[in-house]
């Protein structure tokens, strides 16, 4: 999800914000801020109530912030992953399009997803019998299970098979096939391991063989705004086009990301999108309420503006381990004086 470097700013030049969560309380004269560096000359700040929890795993730093505007915000290695107020936009777009476009989805494999929100959305579908969620970081999974109360029911669902493993290794080692495979992965950042799960060789040799005949793959694909879509979105789309016959890119604005976000859905079976048909499927197949998606919203999300449409048509870059593209920023947590 997010990949931007961040810092914590406090207006009174106090130190030790992350050493004492109480230090981040917005007092009468002291305001504390979470700041993302979107680009070298562009930053995005959130006013904080407090730092709720923090932990460190083998792989990354984990922080849960309480922001004034977006509620609880999950930050991994200084990179915002999701915000309580609007994470439903990201996760509904990640999960439901593929499930609704499949004739009868019963099994799903989630690469990443340790937050639990992707599994939560999948379990709204009556037909789902099994969800394998494979995240490499047990500390993140345990942290989210404990502190993100909205997802506790999903973590405790008997249909969930939780695997702590590298998703690539897990798929390589499995013989079963899945109706849906989901990429709920961190963005490709230089020096990080996730970019390998966006490569043509991975899609072609490891992921696609683990799909059923009519299976559908869907992945988050990074920022997809007018100024940001060429960073990785167009390249991920073009790479997937080299592997699957039918590829559908779509986007939605996520307020806490300060940008439009992109997803790519792909299959070797035709993907049919009809607003009325999708509304019928939502009514018949789903228990619970979708807050963002309906048939019209799903269909309109695939209508890209002229600039982005032309970029996707003209994109020639293919993701490989040797020629990967990376998003700006590495991610830091610090106190700015």
TrEMBL record:
Matching CDD domains: AdoMet_MTases
Domain PABS: 31-268
Class of the enzyme per the UniProt entry, highest EC level: transferase
Record carries keyword Iron: no
Family annotation (Pfam families): Spermine_synt_N, Spermine_synth
UniProt catalytic activity: S-adenosyl 3-(methylsulfanyl)propylamine + spermidine = thermospermine + S-methyl-5'-thioadenosine + H(+)
Keywords assigned by UniProt, alphabetized: Polyamine biosynthesis, Transferase
PROSITE patterns hit by this protein: PABS_2
Protein name as annotated: thermospermine synthase
TM stretches of this protein: none
UniProt lineage: Eukaryota, Viridiplantae, Streptophyta, Embryophyta, Tracheophyta
Gene behind this protein: LOC110705387
HAMAP family from the UniProt entry: Spermidine_synth
This enzyme's EC code(s): 2.5.1.79
């Amino acid at each position: 999800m997010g990949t931007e470097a961040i810092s914590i700013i406090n207006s009174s030049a106090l130190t030790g914000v992350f050493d004492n969560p109480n230090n981040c309380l917005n007092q009468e004269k002291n305001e504390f801020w979470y700041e993302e560096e979107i680009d070298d000359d562009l930053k995005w700040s959130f006013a904080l109530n407090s730092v709720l929890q923090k932990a460190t795993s083998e792989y990354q730093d984990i922080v849960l912030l309480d922001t004034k505007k977006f509620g609880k915000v999950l930050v991994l290695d200084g990179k915002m992953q999701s915000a309580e107020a609007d994470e439903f936009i990201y996760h509904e777009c990640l999960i439901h399009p593929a499930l609704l476009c499949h004739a009868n989805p019963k099994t799903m494999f989630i690469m990443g997803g340790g937050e639990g929100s992707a599994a939560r959305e999948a379990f709204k579908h009556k037909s789902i019998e099994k969800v394998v969620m494979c995240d490499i970081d047990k500390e993140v999974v345990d942290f989210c299970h404990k502190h993100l109360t909205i997802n506790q029911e999903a973590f405790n669902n008997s249909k969930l098979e939780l695997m702590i493993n590298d998703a690539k290794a897990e798929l390589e080692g499995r013989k079963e096939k899945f109706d849906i495979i989901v990429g709920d992965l961190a963005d490709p950042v230089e020096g990080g391991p996730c970019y390998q799960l966006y490569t043509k060789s991975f899609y072609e040799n490891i992921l696609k063989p683990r799909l059923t005949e009519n299976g559908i793959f869907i992945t988050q694909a990074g920022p997809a705004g007018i100024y940001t879509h060429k960073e990785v979105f167009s390249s991920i789309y073009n790479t997937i086009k080299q592997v699957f016959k039918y590829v559908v890119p779509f986007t939605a604005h996520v307020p806490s990301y300060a940008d439009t976000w992109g997803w790519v859905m792909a299959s070797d079976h035709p993907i049919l999108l009809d607003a009325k048909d999708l509304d019928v499927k939502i009514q018949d197949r789903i228990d619970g309420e979708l807050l963002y998606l309906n048939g019209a919203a799903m269909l309109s999300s695939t209508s890209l503006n002229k600039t982005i449409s032309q970029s996707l048509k003209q994109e020639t870059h293919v993701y490989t381990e040797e020629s990967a593209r990376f998003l700006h920023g590495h991610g830091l947590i610090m106190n700015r004086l």
